[in-house]
Write a structure and sequence with these properties.
Length: about 190
């Protein structure tokens, strides 16, 4: 091993176990990922229906990229038409033994079907209102981390979409991704 192959502080030595920049780290760290979400998550690997602009083509969701990049087993748990409170029971029913990472994403249906009040982020260990978008998100995260403290939880902010009510076009407000960013701050992810 030459100094050009690895970046080290002068005088430091390579640890006994290491991964070079060119190696896939998944062999050591991330072997199994579970992805929870709505139809955006569910569509990965599905063929678009005749009514879709890309009819007959296979949808390639973020899970496909995770498989390719990390070489990990990626399990899709996407539920068409579900809001985050509707996804929460599936999160709570899942067995997290051997799961290294969980992605959580929702928001399109929450915006489409619910009122403007989405809930507010609360401190860790609070009693969350699981009928709200934010409360269900926080309850899901804490459930996963209590079931498997070594599991990494990745919050995926929702795609900013729109919905039409009669002649009125509503655009998803930034309150949805902003609330998830606040949850992330509370939990101090990625330390």
């Amino acid at each position: 091993i030459t100094p050009d192959e690895y970046m080290l502080v002068k005088g430091n030595k390579l640890p006994e176990k290491y991964a070079s920049y060119g190696e896939k780290k998944s062999e050591q760290y991330i072997k199994k990922i579970v992805c929870f979400g709505d139809s955006i998550t569910q569509q990965d690997g599905s063929v678009y229906k005749e009514t879709h602009a890309e009819s007959g083509q296979m949808a390639k969701g973020y899970q496909s990229y995770l498989r390719e990049l990390l070489g990990a087993t990626v399990i899709t748990q996407g539920y068409i038409g579900h809001t985050m409170p509707g996804i929460l029971p599936y999160v709570k029913a899942y067995d997290y033994e051997g799961v290294d990472c969980v992605t959580l994403t929702a928001g399109a249906n929450d915006f489409r079907y619910s009122a403007e009040e989405i809930g507010s982020p609360l401190p860790i260990g609070s009693e969350f209102n699981e009928t709200t978008y934010v409360g269900a998100f926080q309850a899901a995260i804490e459930y996963i981390l209590n079931a498997n403290p070594l599991c990494r939880v990745v919050i995926v902010t929702p795609i900013r979409g729109y919905t039409k009510n009669g002649d009125t076009l509503r655009v998803m407000p930034t309150t949805y991704p902003d609330a998830l960013k606040e949850i992330e701050k509370i939990l101090e992810f990625q330390k």
